[in-house]
Structures are given as C-alpha cells and as structure tokens.
Amino acid sequence: MKLAIVQMDILFGESEKNYQAVEKYIEEAVKSDVDVIVFPEMWNTAYALDRLSELADENGLKTKEILSRLAKKHNVNIVGGSVATKKENRFYNTMYVSDRNGNIIAEYDKAHLFKLMDEHLFMEQGQRDNVFELDGIVCGGVICYDLRFPEWIRVHTLAGAKVIFVPAEWPKLRIDHWQLLLQARAIENQCFVVAVNRVGTDPNNEFNGHSMVIAPWGEVMLSKKTGEGIYYLEINLQEVEDVRNRIPIYEDRRTDLYKS
Ligand SMILES: O=C(O)CCC(=O)C(=O)O
C-alpha cells in the first residue's frame, strides 16, 4: 500500500481556500501513483468552532463531492482526514473515506471530544466505530484525541483492522504524547498506524506536524517531519500477519478477566 501523507497547513476559518488546497494536494499526490492519500483533522475550518454555523459543511456534501470526484478521476483511495459538518442542526467532526471508484465507504464522527479545546461545547460526539476496506484490506479510522483511548483503537483491531488511520490537529506542546501514544497503539495492536498531523498555527496553538507511520513491530517509518508537504512511503501488510504469528496477543487475551 503506497501512502501519500498530506501534512498541510490549514487556514483558520477560510474553508473555501482550504478546499482548494486539498484539491491541489490530491492532484499533486496522484502524480506519484499512490494507493491512499491521507489528510489531517478539520481541514475545512480548523478549530474555528464559534463560526461553525457559517462554515461547517452541511451533511458533508461538498467534502464528499470533492473526495469522490477526485478519487474516481484518479483511481485512488482517499482517507479524507476530517471536516466540520452540520447534520440536522448539530455539528460534528467527521471523517469521510472514498474508495477508488468514488464510493464514500466510511463516515465517522469523532467519538471522544477534546474538552481542552472546547470541542464538547460546540460539537456532538459520534456513536459508532469506523471500520472500512481499502483494496480488500480492513482498516480503521479514529480522530486525534480518540488516540488517547486504547480501548477504542482495540475495538477497531478486534474487528479486523490492520491499518489504523489517525488524522489530527495535535499541538506542538504535547507532541511527545502524540509520538509515544502512536507507537504504543501500533505495538499493542500489532497493526500499522498512519497518523497525519497539520502544521501552522491557529489563534491558540502551534502545530509542528510530526506525522507518523509506524509498523506493527513498532518501527517508526516516518516521523519528525515539520515542513508542510506530502510525504510518500509504502507499507507491507504481510508484516501484520508476521508479527501476530510471532507474538499471538489476540489468542492470548484474557477475556475472562476483562471485557474488551
Ligand atoms: O489529546 C491531545 O493532547 C490533543 C487532542 C486534540 O488536539 C484534538 O483532539 O483535537
């Protein structure tokens, strides 16, 4: 699976420009013949939460149209990070995924809202997990703060996910947590973790990228990149089976002692 990790800056509250930037990034990434393009969290609005009624994408229509059209045009899968959406007069932090045929195969509302950034005051939390298939490979997708809940990632790997995508707007201030948690999630679940963070600033935070790709044995394949741009790399899904056969944690779990 060839990945294009789009570590982009996001203009605060300037959704039109952000949509244009995402289109450009897709057009650029497909020149490298990739299988999956991955974006960060809330790329349409950034954390302009008090302007959601004006900015959020109603039913995700605009986002779905762009992802679907470009995925089909270029025969590429797109894990669309997340965008601010409005559904039945409520706001959500929503991930859409398009397959190569332009089908929107996943829609996930962030399950754990981040109180430190007031997300819970403006948005509703999601109620479902996010498992989908890309080219026959079972994948899962969670968003930013969801990463701090190992049981939530485990829900996805128990459902068969071999790759977990984690789009984020994770501030520089806690970037050491980001790196350690991502690595831990990959090792404890014996899966690939593909995590895409933004760069740039908003009125309250600085973001320094550090998008990461981690293999199931814990090997860090991409990290410490702070520049805006697309990072390319390929992962070998066979490694998941190899690691799971070597240390069979899924067989050894004591579900008689704990539930999940
Ligand atoms: O958990 C953290 O430290 C960062 C989480 C976050 O920024 C978010 O969920 O948007």
Largest sheet: 8 strands, mixed
N-end to C-end Cα span: 29 Å
What's the pLDDT, averaged over the residues? 97
- Multimeric state: single chain
Shape verdict: globular
Task: Tell me which CATH architecture applies here.
Answer: 4-Layer Sandwich
Question: Uncertain regions: pLDDT < 50 for 5+ in a row?
Answer: none
Report the C-alpha radius of gyration, rounded: 17 Å
Keywords:
single chain, 260 residues, alpha/beta, Nitrilase/N-carbamoyl-D-aminoacid amidohydrolase, 8-stranded mixed sheet, 8 helices, 28% helix, 28% strand, globular, binds 2-oxoglutaric acid
Protein described:
With 260 residues, this protein is an alpha/beta fold. It is 28% helix and 28% strand. The strands form three sheets. Strands 1, 2, 3, 4, 5, 6, 7 and 16 form an eight-stranded mixed beta sheet that branches. Helix 6 links the parallel strand 10 and strand 11. The longest helix is centred in the first third of the chain and has 15 residues. The chain is globular and about 50 Å long. The structure holds 2-oxoglutaric acid. The site of 2-oxoglutaric acid has 10 residues, from loops.
Q: What's the topology here?
A:
Elements: E1 2-7, H1 15-29, E2 36-38, H2 52-55, E3 57-58, H3 61-74, E4 77-79, E5 83-87, E6 90-98, E7 104-109, H4 119-122, E8 131-134, E9 137-141, H5 150-158, E10 163-168, H6 175-189, E11 192-197, E12 199-201, E13 206-208, E14 212-214, E15 220-222, E16 229-234, H7 238-246, H8 249-252
Parallel strand pairs: 1-2, 2-4, 3-5, 9-10, 10-11
Antiparallel strand pairs: 1-16, 4-6, 5-6, 6-7, 8-9, 11-14, 12-13, 14-15
Helix pairs in contact: 1-3
The protein binds 2-oxoglutaric acid.
